[in-house]
Amino acid sequence: MPDLHPVCFGAGRAICYSCAMGGYAEVWKGFLSERRLEFGGHMDPGWQDGHALSASLMIPVDTACLRPRLDPLREALRPLPFVSLHPDHFIHITLLLLGFLVPEPGDAGEISPERLSDVEVRARRALADFPAFEVELANLNAFPGAAFIEAYDGGRIGDLRGGLSSSCGLKKPSGPPHMTLAYFHAPEGTRAPDELISAIECYRKWPIGKIRVSEVELTLLDLRRDYPEPECLARMPLKGAGQPVSQSAAQQKSRDSLHRASDEPLSLP
User: Which residues contact 178 (CB under 8 A, 6 or more apart)?
Assistant: First the structure.
């Protein structure tokens, strides 16, 4: 892999909510057109492919101040049998999926503890030049595998993803940034029922609240459990958000997690 230098980020940027809203409107239009569901989330056996742990970079979300505006959406979705609602401790905004953690990677979808440590170092460098920012959360929307909340930030999450991807030698993911509220656990190709469409349409224009993005977490997710607490390997602050909580801890922590995982049988649904 060629040496990758940290990306420098600019500070000011005008927020264009109309541009972001256009993208989300297209997602909703596509969902209405296809009316198709699939099995979404980390419990999908086809996606897991026998792996126990998945690593990612994510924005943590404190739902305490958002709960009064989130609860009506949860209650609207709860009666639908294929909806799997996220508990508060599982709510976050994914930046990059890094891969399945294994001792010795055998394909492109896997990552070793050593590479995870390298990602931490490179990400920490990049984030030190990226100013903290605010995200406005609003409106219920859907992909075939999940219901989500739209995120309006003038493109800052996209910039953050791009900067981290470049710095860490990773591919920038496509699709709009979002905060997943629930997975759909339905067989591939199941038709989305009218009840789901109606529930989402009631909250297509529904302000949730604002969050401040001041740090990024490097996390591990136990794929054998429904909604485990993501294990934080490292907290990495953005520019002006304070000093790092830990330095270069990802390699040892990920090795410890691999050791624990190897002692437990993998249970797939």
Answer: 93, 141, 148, 149, 150, 151
